[in-house]
Automatic annotation (TrEMBL):
Keywords: Cell adhesion, Disulfide bond, Secreted, Signal. This is CCN family member 5. GO terms for biological process: cell adhesion; positive regulation of cell differentiation; signal transduction. Gene3D superfamilies: Thrombospondin type-1 (TSP1) repeat. The gene is Wisp2. The keyword Manganese does not apply. Its main location: secreted. Transmembrane segments: none annotated. It comes from the Eukaryota. PANTHER family: CCN FAMILY MEMBER 5, CONNECTIVE TISSUE GROWTH FACTOR-RELATED.
Amino acid sequence: QVCAQLCRRPCYCPWVPPRCPRGSPLVLDGCGCCKICARRLGEPCDFLHVCDQSQGLVCDYSSAPAGTGGTCNFEDDEEGCEVNGRIYREGQVFQPSCKIQCHCLDGGFNCIPLCQEDVRLPSPDCPYPRRVEIPGKCCPEWVCEAQDRHLLRDARAAAGAVSPQPPSPCPEWGTEWSACSATCGLGFATRVSNQNRYCRLETQRRLCMARPCPALPAAFPA
């Protein structure tokens, strides 16, 4: 009955097919008559304006008032994951932000950072490296300010000069302590931090012990 009301025979379609946005393929409408752009996830749909079935989408009328169109959504029996109110299908790779990329898998999602978490240690040409956000760029970058180089040059020029005092205030920055170098007994953990007198990035070490080592059998002396 719906098909008889909405579908006209013979078909009358425009000569030139519509230009679809990226990710929206050309498909036949619900009457199987004219080529239209498939509706994507979250877009409105109805009998004529069909969803992109290649992406596993169906027209969901569950939350729409009676007699109105629905919204393109994944089928209920298909596993997916929800991030920030948006549903992604099983196996889909997506980016909630420019800094991370996630993979929907088994109803959950795994994410990896896209920005390098490298650490820049002080050097003669850059005694006070600082990581800052650059306008127009997603990932922060290491920069060296000109005044830092002037401080180093002035300190070297002065005979018997002490190390320059850190700029005030000095924002604390450091990495997490690494895992213990030994699985049992005494080992050491490392980190990079500027929490020192001169607010300079340096590698720091401390003793650690994950657990005591088991005692050797009497037949095998140490």
